[in-house]
Write a structure and sequence with these properties.
The chain is mainly α.
């Protein structure tokens, strides 16, 4: 039985995807501003949409500490919504970077961008996220990761795990 092969993607699709990924990987080296990199990441997402089932590793113990800290935070519902949205935007093999800006996270979480800023700050204070630069975050490699385990171990060596030292009602909670 012979069949006909039908091309579902443009002929140069793979070249386009590789070129966009290369520019994103070396954007800092060439001085690309964050707005440009975000635009390129968005274009890459349209050309090569992420797999329907993304693989994100979570450390169960660290995740429980993050959840306890979020629950004790000033705005737990907004912070939890942003935490869940952020996890869904972890880029594969890009040192845990969250590939979404404040507005994208706000939309995904169903909250206002102003609440997003406060929630992101809270997640950095908790230690769940690391602030890379203004408006850009990565997941703490002790909490979660998407990509090479070797890269995660390298990143974990230079970052601290989440520690439970919360203040509830003026009293410090002990683990």
């Amino acid at each position: 039985m012979g069949g006909t092969v039908v091309r579902l993607r443009p002929k140069r699709h793979d070249v386009i995807v590789e070129a966009l990924q290369l520019v994103l990987d070396f954007g800092d080296h060439y001085g690309l501003d964050q707005h440009t990199k975000d635009g390129l990441a968005g274009a890459l997402g349209k050309v090569a949409p992420p797999e329907k089932w993304a693989f994100v590793m979570l450390n169960p113990t660290q995740q429980r500490l993050v959840l306890k800290a979020i629950k004790a935070s000033p705005r737990p519902l907004a912070t939890m919504a942003i935490w869940q949205a952020a996890i869904s935007f972890i880029a594969y093999d890009r040192d845990g970077e969250i590939m979404a800006d404040r507005e994208t996270l706000a939309e995904a979480a169903g909250i206002r961008p102003q609440e997003t800023t406060k929630a992101l700050s809270q997640l950095v204070e908790i230690g769940a996220l690391l602030k890379l630069r203004r408006g850009r975050y990565a997941i703490n490699p002790h909490v979660g990761w998407s990509g090479s385990v070797l890269k995660r171990e390298q990143q974990a060596a230079v970052n601290k795990p989440v520690q439970l030292s919360l203040f509830e009602g003026g009293k410090e909670a002990r683990p």
